[in-house]
Amino acid sequence: MRLASLIPEDDSDHISFRHYGHTYCVGECIGKGGFGSVFSVLGKPQLVIKKIPIKTKRQLTLIQQEIELTRMHLDHPFIIRSFEEYYDTDNQTMYILYERIQGITLNTHIEQWASEPSDTARASRWHIARQVCCGMHYLHTQGFTHRDIKPHNIMIQEHPLHVKLIDFGLSQRSDANTGSSGSKTYNAPEKFDAKYPQTHAVDLWSLGCLLFHLFFCTTIFAHSKTKAFDKKNAPAIPNIYHRLHQHLNALIAESEPNTSQILPLIRALLHRDPEQRPSGHEAYEYLTVHAQDIAPVDHDCLHPSQSDGDTKH
């Protein structure tokens, strides 16, 4: 049965369909928002169906791009997968069958940790950071760049802790990176300054911003009281970059025990020259070495070398 016929206009449930030899039943609506609706799918493996009203051609293009990546090109434990889709042109609605993620966004976790710091949260940060590096490294070895790495685009499943990178709508092939799309406080400076080419290293800059947010519970721009990069003010990029690194150097000099080990990696990832940023593999290795006493390597975290090759930049 086509996905378009699964969920009628009244959103009634208990409609059966078959997918790759398995019979599933559409359950209740488990989420609604500006993006559309999410319905549970009863059966194993656990799946969900997203029902997305299409409002613009650009929205359709971004969704189709994500589907192509997560269904056709990417297969990794730390990257979300889609399995089937159908675009109902009459009703301008996209239906997508995804794996179900039992968890919340990293952004929500960070908000919780900010109000309730604990040793468990401290260890979880290192586990999450390593898994993000694993997923990102795999993505880069497959020749793709995410271009919108941020806490909102990382889902966290618990028991055991498990990361899923989501939202590949802005992703591009690494050899064809262009444009300034992304999230303001995670965008790399080269998105607004042609001095340096855009490569997969835009994700590595975002990773540095992500790690800062993860360990300090706020963005590096808010923490340093510095404006984010902006295409309307490209001449200010060198001054903004200088202020960020002055702030990082001051924090490193303070040597706070909870953050002193992560800051040198963040500083390296936030290098102005994309060629000088450590790869996802190198970031993973750094995190593993410096977190041995805080968060021993989790068994469910694949080593980046298990990906198809390494990525140089």
Let me know the largest β-sheet.
Answer: 6 strands, antiparallel
Helix content: 25-40%
Element order: H for helix, E for strand: EEEEHEEEHHEEEEHHHHH
Q: Do you know the CATH architecture of the largest domain? A: Orthogonal Bundle
Radius of gyration: 20 Å
Which overall shape is indicated by the principal axes computed on the Cα atoms? globular
Task: Write a concise keyword list for the protein shown above.
313 residues, alpha+beta, Phosphorylase Kinase, domain 1, Transferase(Phosphotransferase), domain 1, six-stranded antiparallel sheet, three-stranded antiparallel sheet, disordered C terminus
Short description:
The protein has 313 residues and is of the alpha+beta class. It has eight helices and eleven strands. The longest helix is centred in the middle third of the chain and has 23 residues, at 119-141.
